[in-house]
Amino acid sequence: MTDTRSKFEVFLDDCDEAEEKYKAGETFIPTTIIEPMIAPEYISGILEGECENHQRLNERIHDQTRPAKIIFLIVARSGNLGILDKFLSGNFSDFDLPIEVERDRLECKVRTVRNGNLTKDLFGNMKWNDAQAFRDNQWPFLSPIFKDRFEFELKRGIPLPLVERGHSIISGFSTVCWVKMHPDHIPKIKMERLAMKKMDFGSEDEIKFTNKELKNLIRIRELEHLHLVRPVLTCTRGEDLETPDPSKRNEAFFFFPWADAGDLDSFWKKSSNENGSHIPWMLGQMVGLCCALELLRDVNCRHGDLKPANILCFAGKSGNPVLKITDVGLSKFHILATSKRLKGTTARTTTKRYIPPEFDIYLRDIESSQGRSEDIELSREFDIWSLGCIFIEFLIWVKLGQDEYKKYDSVMSDDRRFWDSERRTLNATVKERIKSLEAATAGDDLHKLLDLIQESMLVPKEERENAFLIRKKLEVIRDVYGESSSPPEETRLPLDLTGEQDLQQNHPQHSLETPKESEGADLGDVAPPPNPSELNTMAIPPNNAAAQNQSAKLQDRWAVTIDNGFARKLFSHSALAPPRENSQLCNECSAIRFWEPNVEFSGSVKGFLSRSSSCALCNLLYVVSRKLGLGEDQELRFVRNGPTLNSIVAHNQPVLSLFSDPGYNTNDLGFAQVGYPALPLPESPQRYRLFKSWIHTCDNEHGHAPEVCDTVRMPTRLIYVGEFTERLEEIKDARFQRYLALSHCWGGAPSLRTLTNNIEEFRKEIPHDHLPLNFQEAIRVTRGLKIPYLWIDSLCIIQDDYKDWQQEASRMGQVFSNAYCTIAATSAATSNEGFITPKTDPAPSVAIRTPYGGLLHISEFLEDLHQDLELARLNTRGWVMQERALSRRTLHFTKTQVYWECGNGVHCERLLKLSNPQSSLFEDSDFPRSILKYYKGGRITLFQNLYQKYSRLNFSRISDRPVAILGLEKRLSAVLETRGVFGIFEQYLARSLLWSRPEEAFLTHISFADGIVVPSWSWMAYEGPITYANIPFNRVEWSNECVLSSGGETDANAEWPVLKVVARDLTLQKLDMLNKVKLDEKSGGDLSSLRGVVLGKDKDKELRDQLHYVLLITQSKDQRGGKTAYVRAGVAWLLHHNIGSGGEEIDIY
Asked: Of 5, 61, 314, 809, which residue is least crowded by CB atoms under 10 Å?
């Protein structure tokens, strides 16, 4: 049937249809419908049929300085285009929308978004009814497009672009529901559903909160953490927040990812833990939640309303949900809402169960401040109490059962609190359940968790521990429990993966280690399966530099603890320093009680500067402030954490160290390290006494000394240091001798080396004065420790004898493994710099007498192991990774002080002790035996982590890349009980072969000397960093179409291993090269030249959806025995239709 409607009638019908379709509470017309309506030909078509002066109107509507396209649609929607001329007679344009109209006697006055004053001149002589119709019809056309920003301010009446919404639930101070937005109005947010939290506010108090919390949410949005729900966008609607009209209600909307699995309380009521399988997951999630609170604490943020309803369940890869804290950044709303609940002044109810005892004090403070609750601050320990309550309920569910949790919840549901404020004790119901839990966890490792909750979390505020300390203890409980209960494939080694994967594994953060079993991805971050980003999924977006920097700082955090047992033994045999005078302090600093638990203090940088000439501590604080990059108008805030003062603005990093003078026997400084802030002189007896004490303790208490027996293979040559002269000795058939090994940077060839023409001379005497300074100092350290022999590579290997070099280089791992101790010249970038004397100025310090007679020294924090050791040039060298990993113990001479690294941790010259689970790999005195307690997944993670690290290190000669790690590879092969060649392990062949280049760079093939051949399938054949495919355990079916064999089995001329494979033809399009294929080299060949070897495919998926893990190969320019030879070209992630059915057996060289 022919459509007889005019274009104007079609327009009106289209508007009716759109408004009928899109009215999920707020009617709007989507931008996809509006865009065609404001096209010039569309508007012209309507005007020509309805208006006589259509040409002039059309020109006015499309005037670029005062466009009126939306105005045209609004007037047309009213059905009366005859009045369009009146709206366009002045300068009224789309920029003035929306408008408000008021009737003043017979006149119509208008207020626009650009001009807040009422005026009667905008429309000319306009009837009230026409202006009113325009005002009412404008809203559907003004729905916002949310893009390129996080915050939006909408005028009252502008509709949200909601196409669907769920049932609203009242939650405290707000209502929450799920919504679907029109996709064209949120073009960059790829989430089908969002959680919408709506808050109504109007009072002055509430408006102030809104202003403050919006600023908080901007900060929270920058935090990346697996267990935090970050806001997607925020908007306010109503009056200007800066000049509000309290008589009119405003609205704030906060949008978050929607958790389809509900909250933690719902999970407990719907799920059971009959076989105990949820316990490892629970412990991992507990660690993760503490990590999240720790990160919030670092940025000076609290939650304020932690409860199971604010912990959401998102789908996780392991089948169990990932728990994420929501409502972060709304603490002021939580305080206000909770205070009203407790005072009974609001009809909106939510549980009071998790409120800590000190909230009664907050309530009194709020009342005494006449309701100005924006000035009432939550303590840092507020959230710890709430989390302790949640942990108790977690234990009730996991140990007493689902039914018992439901009974308990029913009893507590009448808004009872954990804390009985009248009796000043825990609620009777809670105490009864805790008693049941004590019986249920008797003889179980979970009793340690129950003890932790009772002793460190559900205690008075002053005794509550912070999130960092609780997390560290939880990690121990998790790891102990995991070792005895985790299934083999699920156990993961706590290692920091380098490159892109370390960001994924350690997000954000750290010391904020990603918990075991805390798997899952944020909604909206999940990529389609066949995507090379599967290799190295990043938890931190690559363009978020601030978040990456923060993650790096947090990830490399070392825990600082005292080592006073060792220190007291040391000083019992040492002369003490003469007493020190008390430092002069100002009144403000004199009032700080550093010896009190969790003491906090703050001050402005400008204030420190103004008092620095008369106060020693202010001077020290000013120096620290400037090093942190703070301006004079900024504030420095500290909190004591054991023996350090940590800066809150520096992500809770230590900035000052605390020492208890050993000359004063006092009990009030037990938190501080016994010792002095000043280092002993570089070659003083006191320094060597410390070194010998470290070695003696390690030998006798740690058991980390190398084995002493005649079967230990000694190095071919060693330097005998004697008392005054040195000489080179052949050690081939000699009995075991103690020796030290030097790890150092050459920085160009040393001035004196062993060569074929001087070795006989060196056997008699090595000219000491001609030695590089590093070698001279290493000899002095060896003599000072009373060790007879020293090994230095450039003197103990004949440098111009290639055969000798090859033989000794292959045994380098044994040299360092059998050394009594390694001397690491970490602070020296060349062989002539010297390393014994620190290269930084002595740290300034302050002495303060305590009320109990102790002497407290406060000094600048020097124990930055990440900066001193990990980032030192020595540890960027390829040869050094093997030296450090295989050394049983090492003296690291860094630019600030000496560190002793052994299997017991890292000990500092200033006697503090450092620990970091992610660096414990290099502390293993019998590397890598510590991994034997881990299962298959941990072993794979171990070698992948090591090889990724190694591939990023530097070489003077890149051709050393396959040689400088031979010792490590041999050791790994022995422990893993499999053959290892060229960075590939036979038992884990497919995973070993699925290495690839990173996204941002191609690899370059290395040119080796004649006679040295490295297979193309080994990453050792290339220059550049590598990463490994992030493939889940137990979810891949590995093929048998790739076998590692010796070349001699197939080719008489071959002397290195080859891969015997089944090669298949591939069907690839150009688009596949972008998102399914990763070629190793830039000149890796075109589509037609590539063939594939299927190494594995996903289990438990339909054939067409299975992801296939493929090794890409191509024909070599060279031939092997007259036959076509194939070499590796890269890796790919393909679907079934990309892979041919037939195959050909070939060899890859």
From this structure: 5
